[in-house]
Design a protein that fits this description.
This protein has one domain: 3-Layer(aba) Sandwich (Rossmann fold). By secondary structure, the protein is α/β, with parallel strands linked by helices. It has eight helices and seven strands, in the order H-H-E-H-E-H-E-E-H-E-H-H-H-E-E. The chain is globular, with a radius of gyration of 17 Å.
């Protein structure tokens, strides 16, 4: 069963776009507040996996408000193209980019991760943070991301996962299922969005199951990096050289 943000009619893709449009003004604050700022560390670690490439051209899928794209440019001196289906999130990203005077090296546009408007073998790397679990069709999204990668190019996926060890697992799940939806809903005025968050994470195929999805999409998994006792995982994979 596909997990959707709302109980109303409409595809998951349409509902996800609407959800992020609704919470865009409070998204950055809630992201850092609810994770106690740890998400910033996870993003830096994900970006560091691309350091071996000199000034790569990077595609940032589900770029949202542009945090990952901005950090990637800051750390790697690279060019980044960000795409998202939420127009309101992209507005926030564009404001950040313009404020920092980076419009010549970072661009964002509305686009669908499952139908990317880019040529085959175009990017040196593709990255996505906390976005793949929102894909309507995971295989289609990963396959199209792989298509745009040059042979030998890297894909870095940062996504929430499920802690496995007692007692942290039980404490975290209690927070995730009950405290986070209440806090997020109260601040964003969209309780459904922060109820969907834990539901989408708990139904997501993490760990080896996600590596299997990468293989099916044509990628070669390299390594998984668990973050903060398994709250999140960074997946590094490569597109086989042709």
């Amino acid at each position: 069963m596909t997990v959707k943000p709302y109980t109303s009619e409409g595809s998951k893709k349409k509902q996800v776009a609407g959800m992020f449009n609704n919470i865009a003004p409070k998204y950055d604050f809630l992201n850092h507040f609810l994770s106690l700022g740890i998400d910033k560390i996870w993003r830096k670690r994900a970006i560091n996996l691309l350091k071996s490439k000199e000034k790569p051209l990077i595609l940032d899928v589900a770029t949202g408000t542009g945090d990952l794209a901005l950090q990637a440019h800051q750390r790697l001196g690279c060019q980044v193209v960000g795409i998202d289906i939420s127009t309101e999130m992209l507005k926030v990203a564009q404001e950040k980019i313009e404020k920092r005077g980076l419009s010549d090296v970072i661009s964002v546009q509305e686009a669908d991760s499952e139908n990317l408007p880019f040529d085959d073998n175009h990017f040196d790397a593709v990255m996505v943070a906390f976005g793949v679990r929102n894909f309507e069709n995971l295989n289609k999204g990963l396959t199209d991301m792989a298509r745009t990668l040059k042979p030998g190019g890297k894909m870095v996926v940062l996504e929430f996962s499920k802690p496995a060890y007692f007692p942290f697992k039980q404490l975290y799940l209690f927070y995730f299922r009950y405290i986070l939806p209440w806090l997020g809903g109260a601040i964003s005025n969209d309780k459904a969005a922060y109820t969907y968050l834990p539901e989408s994470v708990l139904s997501f195929p993490d760990g080896q199951l996600f590596d299997d999805e990468l293989v099916e999409a044509g990628m070669r998994p390299v390594k998984r990096y668990k973050q903060t006792m398994g709250i999140a995982t960074i997946y590094l994979s490569e597109k086989p050289a042709q």
